[in-house]
Structures are given as C-alpha cells and as structure tokens.
Amino acid sequence: MKTINPKFLTTKEIQKCLDGYILQKIKPQNKELNRFITSNISFFRRYKIKNIFRKLFLKRQKDVSRVDKEYTQVWSTKQYPGSPDTKGGSYHYWNDEYFILEGWASKRVHLLLFSKVIEATKPKNYIEIGSGNGVMLMMLSLLHPNVNFVGLELTQAGVNAAKNLQKLDKLPDEIIKFIPRTIKEPKAFKKVKFIQGNACNIPFNNNHFDFVSTSLALEQMAAIQNKVLEEIIRISKGYIGLLEPFKDFNVSKLQKIYTSARDYLSLTTNDIEKHNDIKVISKFSDYPQKLIRGTAYLLAKKIMVNLDK
Asked: What percent of the chain has pLDDT over 70?
C-alpha cells in the first residue's frame, strides 16, 4: 500500500478539477450571497418546525420507505454530468473564496479523491452503499478496471438507471469529459455489478470487501445510521471511506439549520472513531463545500481480529 497522504488532494489538483466549471466568483459582501444565506436560514427554520409537527402529530418519519419514494423520483431523471436535469449552479466556498459551481462540478473533485484513495489502498473489490444511478462507480471503473466494483442501491429506479447506461456501447460524451484523469478502459463500466437492497441488511458475508464506501448516502439514513454503520463494518475486511455531512463539519448557522431541518446524518466523525472495530486514518475536508451543507471524507481501516468471526 502506498503511504496515504492525509490531505489526499493538492490545491493545484482541485483548481484543475474546477477549470471550466466555475460559473461566477463571488465576493463575501455580495448582496445576493447574503440574501441567499439569510433567506435560507429563515426558510429552513420554518421547515424544521413543520417537520417537527409532521413527526409528532402526523407520525411522518424520514424512514426507509420515504427515502425510497423520494429517490425513486430522483433516479427517474437523468442525473449525470451534462444532463439538462443537472443544469444550474449552487453556492460553494473553498480556499477563502466564494463561487457558483455548475451542476455536478463538486462531484468531479469527489471523483478524483475516490480515485486517489483507490490508488493508495489497492482494493481488489469495492462496494458503494447507496450507489444511486451508478454513474460515480462507472466512472471509477474506467480509471481502475482491475477492481471489481459493486453498487448497492435502495431504489429499483436507481438500479434500472445504472443498468440502462450499461446497455450503451460507451458512456455519454458528457460523462467521459467529466472524468478528471486518464481513462484506462472505456468499456469497464459494463462490468460493474448493481443490486437492489437495504443497507440495514447488506447481502454479503462478513469481511467480504477490501473497500466499503458511501458518498452522501448516510446523510439520508439518520433513522438507521447506527445499524448501517454496523453493517458497513461487518462486510469490510479492509478500508472504509465515508464522504458525508458529519455534524462537526456543519458549523455555520445556515449549515446547522439546514442539516437539522432535513433530518440529515447526526453523527460526528468522533462518533465513528468510537467504534472499536475500526481505526480512523484520516479526515479530509479541504475541498469545495456547498455553502448550505458541509462534508468531510473519513478514511478508516478495519481492525481484523478474527477472520472467521
């Protein structure tokens, strides 16, 4: 295994990833920026109150069935780089700068991050929990064709979207252009395995995967987060990489009220470190962040005591 750089990405690499994807640079005193912050704080404060009412009096929880329903609608649209369904921009900040990034631009940095971690950890097999429409996994497969990639997705719509892309002779040009590194095998995306399933009961044996990953998936699993984390640790025999909106990386007033109102993940990175079965190697957040919601990438390694456990 290569020595793992706790920073993962350099400033230069991130800047190169963003080339052509910055729609507008914003000054901190910009009136529209400040209006966006204040209006969203107000909106999500009201949203939170309504959410509390729905929970207490209407018994509407953000459970698995609700997430399934919401994301069935999401994955029924074309959610990938260059698609009309992902057009538009969102406020981000990084490196003491504010800017509006186009569509999936921040995911381009995430993709480079995941690829470099794969290079360092050298897994033979890799599973993403909450793989959505599979686009991120398929792009990774083009960069790392010798890795056996698996995607576990709650919604059948997400699995269907992934398999429909796999029927194409090649991935759409917009997706190919989006990949920030040299492609090694253009047809490797056809080998990625996608299965529909619940993260509370992952259909694989103990200690099965060299690498278990989530990317903005645990954020939707607050009601079952501890059980899912147990499952992630159970099926891992190597590394665990979590890119999520951990509570300790959402500290601004806007981020706190947004993540709370949306019932996002309530775990901190310190909560992850309390698990005796894993050792946290690194926490990394020095990359473009949405103004409304922060994330961090946590890399951990499973402590293997008994392979027959």
From this structure: 94
Question: 139-179 pLDDT, tens per residue?
Answer: 999 999 999 999 999 999 999 999 999 999 999 999 999 99
Asked whether the beta carbons of 291 and 36 are under 8 A apart, the reply is yes
Nearest to 108 by CA among 288, 293, 295: 288
- Note the pLDDT tens digit of each residue in 209-219: 999 999 999 99
Please tell me the distance from the alpha carbon of residue 88 to that of residue 23, in angstroms, as a whole number. Answer: 9
* Global confidence as pTM: 0.93
Q: Which residues form the domain of 110?
A: 11-302
Is 297 a domain residue? yes
Give the closest residue to 132 by CA, choosing from 77, 171, 176: 77
Q: Long-range contacts made by residues 37-46, C-beta under 8 angstroms, separation at least 24?
A: 37/254, 37/291, 40/254, 40/258, 40/292, 41/253, 41/254, 41/257, 44/254, 44/257, 44/258, 44/261, 44/262, 45/257, 45/261
* HSE (side-chain half, CA atoms, 13 Å) at 284: 23
Whichever domain contains 160, its CATH number is 3.40.50.150
Q: Does residue 4 form part of some domain?
A: no
Number of folded domains that form the chain: 1
Q: Is residue 3 part of a domain?
A: no
